[in-house]
Amino acid sequence: MQGTSSPSLNNVSTVNQAGVQNSATTGQVAFGNNGSAITQNSFGPPALQNNSASVGQLSFGINTSTVSQTAH
After folding, report:
1. What count of Cα atoms within 13 Å lies in the side-chain half-sphere of residue 5?
2. Structural domains counted in the chain
3. Is 7 exposed, middle or buried (0-12, 13-18, 19+ CB in 10 A)?
4. Sequence-ordered list of residues with C-beta below 8 angstroms from that of 66, at least 6 positions apart, any chain
5. Pairing mode, strands 63-71 and 11-19
6. In which domain, by residue range, is 36 found?
7. Statement: the pTM of the whole predicted model exceeds 0.85
8. pLDDT in tens, 16-25
């Protein structure tokens, strides 16, 4: 969580996950801009694969977020 205890000027976060079950959350508060990117790649038995992502952003500038999820 970026800037949640006190607002930052700008926040950028990147999360990359590879596993059977992936879960990611980003939270950003900024006076400027927020950028968040989450990439998840799940593998293994199809019944067990799971990707979960959430993004929360608050700013006076520009918020951008990208979530990419793949299951095999």
Report:
1. 0
2. 1
3. middle
4. 36, 37, 38
5. unpaired
6. 11-71
7. yes
8. 999 999 999 9
Predicted pLDDT of residue 6: 85
Residue type for 44, please? Answer: G
Residue 15 belongs to some domain of the structure: yes
Question: For 16-70, how does the pLDDT look when each residue is reduced to its tens digit (9 = 90+)?
Answer: 999 999 999 999 999 999 999 999 999 999 999 999 999 999 999 999 999 999 9
Q: Are 8 and 36 in contact (CB under 8 A)?
A: no
Does residue 6 belong to any structural domain of this protein? no
Cβ-count burial of 18 within 10 angstroms (0-12 exposed, 13-18 middle, 19+ buried)? Answer: exposed
Query: What's the chain's length in residues?
Result: 72
Cα–Cα distance for residue pair 5/20, rounded to 1 Å: 32
Considering only CA atoms, which of 5, 6, 3 is closest in space to residue 35? 3
